[in-house]
């Protein structure tokens, strides 16, 4: 039987991608959408300024937007996908979990909390079991699971592939991030056209901490963070979707570029409806991946990589992922699929 699901923050950049992915989903039945009090009570068509490349699904267009409050969400909804601003997520997500909902969230609040699993199913699906510790400690009937920041998701699968084969010592990464990563009201056209902005508030810290938690190991009680030294520099550029990243990975042993590329090509993909196979597509062409050409690989859920070069400490390469699909909405849906597979909903 299909799991009844809802979307919190359904009118935003990530919320619209969640609608796009959930409407045709084989295992999830979209039963409610929420947004701010200004949107509540309106039809979804009226409340959402729809900006993606398909029509609003008819049944969703006619749904009434609800308040983002446990009292306004139907009891028979099991799983909530959250794409709320982090300040709002911080205020409402714990109450929803206390009320019994399982929340698969994009918002950055609580991603590094000790008892909140931060998960990319292909990389650390076993960390979901930390939810048992969370429910014990917080006394919740529901549960809170996070996916990482979009720039972190882009590089971590490639780093996991290298770490498993060769051991990862250190990472340096410089990003070229699309404007949709800032949400619909994030960056004005006057700021970004003909420009690049070498600052995205808080993004570097997110990449440096979240990557180490994701690459860490779960011992049944807590997550031991990976001890690799990770340093990031984040830049906004005028692409619409797709974050491109230049990565320098220092590895424990001597590794050729061919061996590094093979480790990524062969990195396994679990059998979940939204997980692409292969997870990482490796290009031979030195000038790929590129955002406009490559962000829709694997229906926007694949990570692409290329441009491998040997360095004194390991390898340098470039990687790319679609920030609102693999980096946000698709990541939450995939986590929802993992929750369903493991019996949490
Ligand atoms: P966005 O376009 O600004 O959308 C925000 C959504 O939250 C809208 O639906 C908005 O509803 C709703 N909202 C705002 N204030 C609210 C309140 N007080 N109560 C209830 N709902 C409220 O933002 P976004 O880019 O989709 O990002 C959403 C979250 O995902 C953020 O935490 C962001 O950091 C994270 N994220 C984004 C990306 C990305 O690539 N964009 C990637 C990874 C993670 P109204 O329309 O009614 O205002």
Cofactors and ligands: NADP nicotinamide-adenine-dinucleotide phosphate
| CATH-defined superfamily of the largest domain | Dihydrodipicolinate Reductase, domain 2
Q: How many domain units?
A: 2
How much of the sequence lies in strands comes to 15-25%
Task: Explain this structure.
- The chain is of the alpha/beta class.
- The protein has two domains: 3-149 and 328-341, Rossmann fold (3-Layer(aba) Sandwich); 150-322, Dihydrodipicolinate Reductase, domain 2.
- 31% of the residues lie in helices and 21% in strands.
- It has twelve helices and 14 strands.
- It has a six-stranded parallel beta sheet with strand order 3-2-1-4-5-6, with helices on both faces.
- Strand 12 (280-282), helix 11 and strand 13 (303-310) form a beta-alpha-beta unit.
- Helix 1 (13-22) packs across helix 12, helix 7 (150-166) packs parallel to helix 9 (203-214) and helix 7 packs across helix 12.
- It is globular.
- The model has no long low-confidence stretch (mean pLDDT 97).
- Bound molecules: NADP nicotinamide-adenine-dinucleotide phosphate.
List the helices and strands and how they pair.
Blueprint lengths: L2 E6 L4 H10 L5 E8 L8 H4 L10 H4 L4 E2 L11 E4 L3 H13 L3 E4 L15 H4 L5 H9 L4 E4 L3 H17 L1 E9 L12 H4 L10 H12 L2 E2 L4 E2 L4 E5 L9 E9 L5 H9 L14 E3 L8 H4 L8 E8 L3 E8 L3 H17 L4
The structure holds NADP nicotinamide-adenine-dinucleotide phosphate (NAP).
The site of NADP nicotinamide-adenine-dinucleotide phosphate (NAP) has 31 residues, from α1, α4 and α12.
């Amino acid at each position: 039987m299909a799991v009844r699901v809802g979307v919190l923050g359904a009118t935003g950049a990530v919320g619209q991608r969640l609608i796009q992915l959930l409407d045709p989903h084989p295992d999830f039945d979209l039963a409610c959408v929420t947004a701010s009090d200004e949107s509540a009570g309106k039809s979804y068509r009226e409340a959402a300024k729809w900006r993606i490349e398909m029509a609003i699904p008819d049944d969703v267009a006619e749904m009434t937007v609800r308040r983002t409050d446990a009292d306004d969400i139907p009891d028979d909804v099991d799983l909530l996908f959250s794409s709320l601003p982090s300040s709002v997520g911080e205020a409402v997500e714990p109450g929803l979990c206390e009320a019994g909902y399982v929340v698969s969230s994009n918002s950055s609040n609580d991603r590094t909390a000790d008892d909140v699993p931060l998960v990319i199913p292909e990389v650390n699906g076993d960390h979901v079991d930390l939810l048992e510790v969370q429910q014990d400690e917080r006394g919740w009937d529901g549960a809170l699971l996070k996916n990482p920041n979009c720039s972190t998701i882009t590089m971590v699968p490639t780093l996991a592939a290298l770490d498993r084969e060769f051991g990862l010592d250190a990472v340096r990464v410089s990003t070229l991030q699309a404007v949709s990563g800032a949400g619909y009201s994030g960056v004005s056209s006057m700021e970004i056209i003909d420009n690049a902005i070498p600052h995205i508030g808080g993004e570097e810290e997110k990449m440096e901490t979240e990557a180490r938690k994701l690459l860490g190991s779960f011992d049944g009680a807590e997550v031991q963070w990976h001890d690799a030294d990770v340093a990031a520099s984040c830049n906004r550029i005028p692409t619409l979707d797709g974050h491109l990243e230049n990565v320098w990975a220092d590895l424990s042993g001597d590794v050729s570029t061919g061996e590094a590329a093979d480790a990524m090509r062969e990195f396994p993909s679990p059998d979940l409806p939204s997980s692409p196979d292969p997870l990482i597509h490796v290009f031979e062409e030195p000038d790929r991946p590129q955002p406009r050409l490559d962000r829709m690989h694997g229906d926007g859920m694949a990570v692409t990589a290329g441009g491998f070069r040997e360095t004194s400490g390991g390898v340098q390469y470039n990687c790319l992922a679609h920030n609102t699909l693999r980096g946000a909405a698709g990541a939450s849906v995939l986590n929802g699929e993992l929750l369903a597979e493991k019996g949490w909903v």
